[in-house]
Amino acid sequence: MSFLVEIPTPIREDLNNMLLLGLWHGRVTPPSSSLLDKIVDNIKLLITTGINIYINNKMMHFMVNVQLHTGDFPARVKCNHLVNHNGFHACSRCLIVGSRCPQPCANHTLYLLSEWHNVLKQNPTGLLLINECLDGIKYSHTYNRRPRDFSTFLKWKASELRTFMLYMALPILVKLSLNMPDCFPTL
């Protein structure tokens, strides 16, 4: 898919404003080069020569520039020659091969959050502060699921836990330590 950068963001992602660069439908996936080579050659030609379009019976010349290549994860895997999107070490950003966590540590995130929750249950102001922080965050449209009240974290879905642990836990912990210094050890 492709779109014009000059169109504002919410309208740009509308299906009517996107250009289909290529589509493959079949039982067997071909090598990415069979589709991408033609697209890349055409884009190179457009970059060097530009494109002429008639608008109101007047020819306008536009220059073409590529800023970004993206797609859903299976498409990026195919284009970048990575392991299948659900395979081992399939991330395009990771340079380190991870290791599987042994079974006794499998739920360590839930354990840490439950211990944190047990401490905060004794201090309702802390729980209220976390919930206010969660409610006050302006989430990007790319977040699929936003964490609910921290008091119900045992019922959170995995995506809520991941969002909380990766993006929110540290800032909330800092805010808690500033507002409730007696509950945190000094370092």
How are the SSEs placed, and which strands pair?
Blueprint: E1 2-3, H1 9-12, E2 18-19, H2 32-49, E3 51-55, E4 58-62, H3 73-80, H4 108-121, H5 124-136, H6 158-179
Helix pairs in contact: 5-6
Folded structure, characterized:
The chain is mostly helical and 187 residues long. It has two domains: 2-68, no CATH class; 103-183. The chain is 42% helix and 7% strand. It contains six helices and four strands, in the order βαβαββαααα. The chain has helices spanning 9-12, 32-49, 73-80, 108-121, 124-136, 158-179; strands spanning 2-3, 18-19, 51-55, 58-62. Strands 1-2 form a two-stranded antiparallel sheet. It has a two-stranded antiparallel sheet with strand order 3-4. Helix 5 (124-136) packs across helix 6. The longest helix has 22 residues, at 158-179. The protein is elongated, with a radius of gyration of 24 Å. The termini are far apart.
Concise summary:
The chain has two domains: 67 residues, no CATH class; 81 residues. The protein is 42% helix and 7% strand.
